[in-house]
């Protein structure tokens, strides 16, 4: 092994014959640590794991005790590799103070405390990451694989304030949902131009190109130079060619083993600029925080019947924690409610519909998902002022009762109503003093799901082996139809059924849309008759609209009563003649067309008093004692 010092990071690195680099503080034996410096030679020698200002040069006997008692004594062991404590300037704070730290043998990240390093290694073991991965470059990269795509990650990739190439493993569900929606659009039109406006590491665009190949023309954009360089490196890591422009995108030598499997275009530009300059069929917006600053630009050049997906991660303002920020970004008045997640999705859709209407475009909501870390909405763009007017009519105010949390959308119209409380089904205003309801909005009052689109998403998820999101998509399908999971027919997706169902879907979509891919003006050629037929088929594809919002069974439980199980309660509501389903917004939520009074009536009917169950159990125990 050859001892060298990295000019970029400062610490020593050991170069193995395989051209891999690991930090010098990672050793297997004490002899290996002492072998980093010639302890048998004469004269003063510096410590290989300490900076000059930390430990001055000394003689061999003192340096040997220093290596044993400081660096080797507090090592962390992992599969035979011992990570000794390091005092080199690898981890330097803004105050220029050196911090002692460990270098992870798996991902090369630096961690200060020994207990934190042990917990970090346990997380690697739980994820199945037990092999050390070292990058050949001067920076310490972690190689992460998701959906067959490899990406390089910087050590601080999970902290946006400390790195430019931010990456979150918690957003895997979001990436797979976006991928399935793009896969459906790729079946409708070919070629398909899609844009990942905020690339970061480029993993989303690389997954599009790697799995959909020549059916899509992927453009990955980011304004940061470090992100653009990282995206290009990740392209080479996945054998994907980087295109500088749109000319010559056909792959040469596609049959060779060393030839690229796909090609993408990497652009360094502000997202608003590229959205104004070029038209796209599919646009995905995933900035860090809110996406309202990019909606106008996104709808300006998106093609007719194209798709725009928006991911918002500003959960503080969306989930009613920062009401002033909510009013500033979305122009919406909200309060904290039991249905706050669906309220966030409808609030984003109201901003999306307003931005589309300003560009004389309407929207059809295909999907709305609100989970712990993000809110995702996917909409199809319908060009024309008529469609824009139809979408604008679905923006309404919501009347919310603060006592019982009953809610209802206000009726459309410009006439002032004398008593708005009459629109609420509850009687709280008559029995309670003062004002009992608040007016929220504007919100999207239309449906949140398209059943046909979700079914095609389930087919795409099965095709690409996305097992993580299949239960979620099935829940969304039941929620869109407002039916229970037991009544939902889930076919056995064998290879033959996949081919038959996908063939039916492709033929149906080809009948729905016929586009001219040779048109370079950014507009799809559709005659008036064809456009009308398309809209009719899209409306026919959507089934009966699901009820707005949901009720939490635990929020409306009766004190001193034992509630029935959730699945049993859904069955009771169905027997009472109501449409009912579970919702992904809340695991204890029930989406139903019953009003709150009817909901509570069924809940009260099938709830059992707590004391009666205790008496029954005591009676059973006494009978057992008598028999014994």
TrEMBL record:
It catalyses: guanosine(26) in tRNA + 2 S-adenosyl-L-methionine = N(2)-dimethylguanosine(26) in tRNA + 2 S-adenosyl-L-homocysteine + 2 H(+); guanosine(27) in tRNA(Tyr) + 2 S-adenosyl-L-methionine = N(2)-dimethylguanosine(27) in tRNA(Tyr) + 2 S-adenosyl-L-homocysteine + 2 H(+). The keyword Zinc-finger applies. One of its GO terms (molecular function) is tRNA binding. InterPro entries: SAM-dependent_MTases_sf, Trm1, tRNA_met_Trm1_C, Znf_C2H2_type. Keywords: Isopeptide bond, Metal-binding, Methyltransferase, Nucleus, Phosphoprotein, RNA-binding, S-adenosyl-L-methionine, Transferase, tRNA processing, tRNA-binding, Ubl conjugation, Zinc, Zinc-finger. It is found in: Nucleus, Nucleolus. Residues 102-129 form the C2H2-type domain. One of its GO terms (biological process) is tRNA N2-guanine methylation. Its EC number is 2.1.1.216. It comes from the Eukaryota. It is an enzyme of class 2 (transferase). One of its GO terms (cellular component) is nucleolus. PROSITE patterns: SAM_MT_TRM1 (PS51626), ZINC_FINGER_C2H2_1 (PS00028), ZINC_FINGER_C2H2_2 (PS50157). The keyword Kinase does not apply. PANTHER family: N 2 ,N 2 -DIMETHYLGUANOSINE TRNA METHYLTRANSFERASE (PTHR10631), TRMT1-LIKE PROTEIN (PTHR10631:SF1). Belongs to the class I-like SAM-binding methyltransferase superfamily. Trm1 family. This is tRNA (guanine(26)-N(2))-dimethyltransferase. It comes from Sinocyclocheilus anshuiensis.
């Amino acid at each position: 092994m050859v001892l060298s010092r990295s000019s970029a990071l400062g610490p020593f690195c050991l170069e193995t014959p395989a051209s891999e680099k690991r930090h010098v503080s990672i050793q297997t034996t004490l002899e290996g640590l002492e072998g980093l410096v010639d302890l048998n030679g004469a004269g003063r020698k510096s410590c290989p794991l300490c900076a000059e200002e930390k430990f001055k040069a000394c003689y061999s006997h003192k340096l040997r005790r220093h290596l044993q008692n400081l660096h080797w004594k507090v090592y962390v062991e992992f599969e035979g590799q011992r990570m000794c404590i390091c005092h080199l300037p690898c981890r330097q704070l803004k105050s220029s103070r050196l911090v002692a730290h460990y270098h992870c043998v798996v991902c090369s990240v630096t961690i200060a405390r020994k207990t934190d390093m042990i917990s970090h290694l346990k997380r690697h073991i739980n994820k199945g990451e037990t092999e050390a991965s070292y990058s050949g470059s001067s920076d310490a990269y972690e190689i992460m694989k998701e959906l067959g795509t490899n990406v390089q990650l910087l050590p601080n990739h999970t902290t946006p304030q400390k790195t430019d190439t931010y990456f979150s493993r918690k957003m895997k569900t979001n990436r797979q949902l976006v991928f399935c929606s793009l896969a459906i659009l790729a079946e409708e039109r070919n070629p398909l131009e899609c844009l990942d406006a905020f690339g970061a590491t480029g993993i989303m665009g690389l997954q599009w190109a790697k799995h959909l190949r020549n059916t899509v023309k992927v453009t990955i954009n980011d304004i940061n130079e470090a992100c653009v360089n990282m995206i290009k490196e990740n392209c080479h890591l996945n054998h994907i060619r980087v295109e500088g422009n749109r000319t010559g995108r056909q792959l040469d030598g596609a049959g060779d083993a060393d030839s690229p499997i796909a090609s993408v275009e990497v652009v360094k530009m502000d997202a608003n600029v590229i959205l104004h300059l070029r038209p796209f069929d599919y646009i995905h917006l995933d900035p860090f925080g809110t996406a309202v600053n990019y909606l106008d630009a996104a709808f300006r050049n998106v093609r007719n019947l194209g798709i725009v997906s928006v991911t918002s991660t500003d959960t503080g303002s969306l989930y009613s924690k920062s009401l002033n920020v909510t009013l500033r970004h979305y122009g919406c008045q909200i309060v904290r409610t039991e249905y706050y997640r669906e309220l966030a999705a409808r609030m984003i859709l109201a901003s999306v519909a307003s931005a589309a209407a300003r560009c004389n475009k309407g929207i059809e909501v295909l999907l709305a998902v609100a989970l712990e870390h993000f809110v995702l909405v996917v909409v199809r763009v319908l060009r024309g002022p008529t469609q824009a007017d139809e979408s604008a009519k679905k923006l309404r105010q919501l009347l919310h009762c603060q006592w019982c949390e009953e809610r209802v959308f206000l009726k459309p119209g410009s006439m002032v109503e004398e008593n708005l409380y009459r629109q609420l089904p509850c009687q709280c205003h008559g029995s309670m003093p003062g004002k009992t309801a608040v007016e929220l909005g504007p919100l999207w009052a239309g449906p949140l799901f398209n059943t046909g689109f979700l079914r095609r998403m389930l087919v795409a998820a099965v095709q690409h082996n996305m097992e993580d999101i299949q239960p979620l998509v099935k829940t969304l399908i039941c929620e869109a139809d407002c039916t229970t999971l037991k009544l939902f027919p889930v076919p056995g997706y064998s290879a033959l059924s996949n081919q038959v169902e996908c063939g039916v879907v492709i033929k149906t979509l080809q009948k729905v849309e016929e586009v001219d891919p040779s048109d370079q003006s950014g507009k799809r050629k559709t005659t008036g008759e064809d456009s009308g037929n398309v809209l009719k088929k899209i409306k026919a594809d959507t089934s009966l609209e699901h009820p707005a919002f949901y009720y939490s069974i635990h929020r409306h439980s009766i004190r001193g009563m034992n509630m029935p199980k959730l699945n049993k309660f859904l069955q009771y509501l169905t027997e009472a003649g109501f449409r009912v389903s579970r919702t992904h917004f809340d695991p204890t939520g029930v989406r139903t067309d019953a009003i709150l009074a009817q909901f509570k009536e069924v809940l009260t009917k099938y709830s059992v008093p707590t004391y009666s169950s205790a008496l029954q159990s005591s009676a059973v125990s006494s009978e057992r004692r008598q028999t014994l």
